[in-house]
Amino acid sequence: MDHVGIDVDKVASQICMIAEGGELIERRVRTEPSRLAEVLGDRVQAWILIEASTESEWVARCLDGLGHEVIVADPNFAPMYETRQRKVKTDRRDARALAEACVLGAYRPAHRLSHAQRHVRGRLGVRDALVRTRTRYIALIRARLRQEGWRVRTGTAEGFSRRVLTLPLPGRLRSEVVLLAARYDINAASNFVANASSVLGVDPLPASPTISFALPPATPR
Prior knowledge:
- It contains seven helices and five strands, in the order E-E-E-H-E-H-E-H-H-H-H-H.
- By secondary structure, it is of the alpha/beta class.
- It folds into two domains: 2-104, ATPase, nucleotide binding domain (Nucleotidyltransferase, domain 5, 2-Layer Sandwich), CATH 3.30.420.40; 115-200, no CATH class.
């Protein structure tokens, strides 16, 4: 079987193929399914080694679909690059080192997540981003109100909007807070987080009814 090393990049990837007879073939292609298929789709089944990275999973699934045996390797396994020349690091040298490591078996496979596991991890990432963003917006609103001598009662994040709206804020300050809250709907995010939590089986954050922020009437100049 041929042995192939691919240095995968988000824009263009370097491919190094070592044929059974020792022939070395090198190509550079855009990191797109169609371009990978053009180069590797018509070739006989090969062993292909790529590093674990952001793009590695979809690239590996694409190459699996072309009939090749794909190994996603741990990039921190130093022996995988033992054959690389001690010069400036380049994509071409990395791809050649990966192809040679594929021949020698000098790699450590990385764990590949299943389809379901990838989506669970993705939703957990979204949940984490929403929680952190909500926290930043609440802190910013609190700080702006404190600058003007107002304080918001303590309580849950889900009830923060309601507590802010109970304050008799003057028109201009209220408009600032409303615009900031409208930029990021705190309650809508809470509902999404709560729903995601129930699906993923993580600790839920209780949702609350969405509260609409009404802009005060414009002050005539």
